[in-house]
Write a structure and sequence with these properties.
There is one protein chain. The protein is of the alpha/beta class and 259 residues long. The protein has two domains: 42 residues, no CATH class; 207 residues, Rossmann fold (3-Layer(aba) Sandwich), CATH 3.40.50.300. A five-stranded parallel sheet has the order 6-7-8-5-9, sandwiched between helices. β3 and β4 form a beta hairpin. It is globular, with a radius of gyration of 23 Å.
């Protein structure tokens, strides 16, 4: 055996690598090695943490589109500063209150102190998903495990797990959703719920209630409409584990941005 290999100076070898042309590297600091040499000492590069966060966000269900949703990007200017008749507050006041509540929840959950979650109600395109994703991004960056589920897609995934050629396991999927420290259910109600689907949603909510695990839920349904869609037993438990906030806008913000 050639023992000369054991005497290779790691820092010098890595330093030689870093002097190669950087044109084809994603990271100009470490040249994709994950290490930066300073005073003959190899230190972890910042890109390693960035890659770690990117993998965690992907595993959490944060799609590329959702990555851009952050609290500082929530534009209060999209909400009109005049009275919204059914609430007694202006659209902007409702948005400011909901934003503050979402930030407070995220900060509390980051310290593992959140026991109640949030139910964000409102029409399509008023910013509910934006705030839910901002919470998810914040928590992952503070090393808290989160799972962001679009409810119709989650139910379709479960249904697919029953097929013979599927490599998905229903039990493993449900266990992860039940036990994740913070669960985000986006678009609850955007589905025609069968008795099986109702039972799945009830089981998840009931488990998290009993184990004091917070949920963030977005829906465009009123509480009465949710009763009809998923059942009053489930809605009763959601009310117990979630603080309810109604987010309203004069018109669909997505359409406003597009125009």
């Amino acid at each position: 055996m050639n023992h000369d290999l054991e005497k290779v100076d790691f820092s010098k070898a890595l330093n030689n690598i870093q002097h190669i042309s950087a044109e084809n590297y994603q990271c100009s600091l470490c040249h994709d090695t994950g290490w930066v040499i300073k005073d003959d000492i190899a230190n972890p590069c910042a890109c390693r943490k960035q890659g770690y966060l990117a993998r965690r966000k992907q595993n959490a269900g944060i799609t590329p589109a959702l990555l851009q949703y952050r609290f500082e990007g929530f534009n209060i200017g999209f909400y009109a500063d005049y009275l919204q008749s059914s609430s007694g507050s202006t659209y902007r006041q409702l948005a400011e209150k909901t934003l503050a509540t979402a930030k407070h929840f995220a900060a509390t959950a980051a310290k593992d102190q959140a026991r109640r979650g949030l139910l964000l109600e409102g029409d399509v395109g008023v910013g509910k998903t934006f705030l839910a994703a901002a919470i998810a991004n914040y928590l992952i960056e503070h090393d808290i495990d989160v799972l962001f589920l679009v409810v119709p897609e989650f139910l379709d995934q479960l249904r697919y797990s029953y097929q013979e050629n599927s490599n998905l396991n229903e039990s493993a999927i449900i266990d992860r959703v039940r036990q994740i420290p913070v669960l985000i259910l986006d678009d609850l109600g955007a589905h025609n719920f069968s008795p099986w689907m109702r039972n799945i949603i009830f089981s998840l909510i009931n488990y998290r209630l009993n184990n004091m695990l917070p949920c963030v839920i977005t829906t465009n349904l009123s509480l009465q409409e949710m009763n009809e869609a998923i059942g009053d037993r489930t809605v009763s438990r959601i009310i117990e584990i979630c603080e309810i906030h109604r987010l309203l806008a004069e018109k669909d913000i997505r359409l406003s941005k597009f125009k």
